[in-house]
Known about the structure:
It contains 17 helices and 19 strands. By secondary structure, the protein is an alpha/beta fold. The protein has three domains: 4-54 and 224-306 and 450-508, FAD/NAD(P)-binding domain; 106-213, no CATH class; 310-447, Polyamine Oxidase, Chain A, domain 2 (Alpha-Beta Complex), CATH 3.90.660. The strands form five sheets. It has a seven-stranded mixed β-sheet, sandwiched between helices. A five-stranded parallel β-sheet has the order 9-2-1-13-19, with helices on one face. The protein has a three-stranded antiparallel β-sheet with strand order 10-11-12. α1 packs parallel to α9 and α1 (11-21) packs parallel to α16 (485-499). It starts with a strand and ends with a helix.
Amino acid sequence: xxxxxxxxxxxxxxxxAASLALCGRRVLVLEQHHGAGGLTQTFERQGWxxxxxxxxxxxxxxxxxxxGQFGRLLAWLSNGELRFAEAGNPYDxxxxxxxxxxxxxxxxxxxxxxxxxxxxxxxxxNAWFADCAEAEGMASRLFAMRALPPLMAWAMHQWRGRxxxxxxxxxxxxxxxxxxxxxxxxxxxxxxxxxxxxxxxxPFFEHALVTxxxxxxxxxxIGGPARFVQTLVPVIQAAGGEVRCSANVLRxxxxxxxxxxxxxxxxxxxxxxxxxxxxxxxGVRNTIGALPxxxxxxxxxxxxxxxxxxxxxxxYLGLEGDIAAAGATAGNHWFYDGQDIxxxxxxxxxxxxxxxxxxxxxxKDPASHAAPTAEVVAVCDPQAFSSWLAVRDSTPRSEAxxxxxxxxxxxxxxxxxxxxxxxxxxxxxxxxxTPLTQRRYVRSPDGAMYGIEMSGERLTTPALRARTPVxxxxxxxxxxxxxxxxxxxxxxxxAAACVEPxxxxxxxS
Length: 509
């Protein structure tokens, strides 16, 4: 009945399914949650609408060439229905203690502002941007290798492997150590939350790629992140496909070591869908957990050695009044106490978060008439929630957990009010999500923010490719490429191109 089955309806799964649908394929998308969209979905509380994972997006502006590729691909997939508005300029505002620096687009403006703020560091600033450009240039080669057949990938690695190894093994801390001024060093590394790994472990390659994606501007979907589902699902349905929610795939069936379908429980009954091609956008941990125990043992062992990344807590705030006049901006805010930007939040109930990311989605969307909102994100060590992460999601939350969560929520709310004293009296609603929330709704291991930890091993392992050792099984999503909306989307399109090679032309456009 189905040409392809896609597991997971995040942006990676939707990209794979919609692109195949435009090639005439009938695709079934199976989503374990009761709503489609993964971390692009929204939810409402008491009249306030919140986004779960989209705060800004790069690469969707009108620029030609590679910098506007993501936007062109989205326009193609959505028949031009997905549109974006500029999300502030400066789009990021970094606070290092009492010092504030706005990061503007285009990159030339950001660079000029740095040169003006740090007049004695011109050579170091210029060298930083030169290295970022070279590292970004390697990204297309690395991710192309993830979609190529093994022999072609090997040939490309033989050709460019040494340069790739240089950039992927250099940590962000390694590269920042060449910068003498501690304030400049902290500013350049401050936005590591966009890829979820602190400078000591984050590959410089990934930091350059992610922060560079905004060099021509940061954008927000007009109508909110829910527009991804609203525009891409009809494309899948128009080709005879379906997006089915509350379908938690727990088994990928094999016959003679080849994929033949999937199974999932619903209303205490196991349902089976037969298909020879399965694309999993559910994360590698969930994917290998659904395979038979005897399948692809070496591959699974290699993937299991890659640990989940850092977790996070998010505070959702409903406000009332003119929040722009009280200090809110369309641009995002990154708060640090000082220049120590790599410290992790290890005891959320007992200490303030060493860093905060604050976004005001209601100010980014020109089509929004919703009540004003704010979203506060703090990266944390998942060990802070380990005793509760060890309990299954189906188990009722304990009183101890609810009390702990309440303490963390109060602390984070107090921090927000100190950062934005003008907004403090406008807060009318607040709700906290924890790593347990993340694991429950998107099945992220240990509530990890971006799936597998961002490391040199993640970038270079041959195990993380669109094609797997299991015939008929493909991987999609951010684990295959890079964290975030754009990375997950490209991972989905790469998996689809393994089914329909003509899609490679789209990837190269």
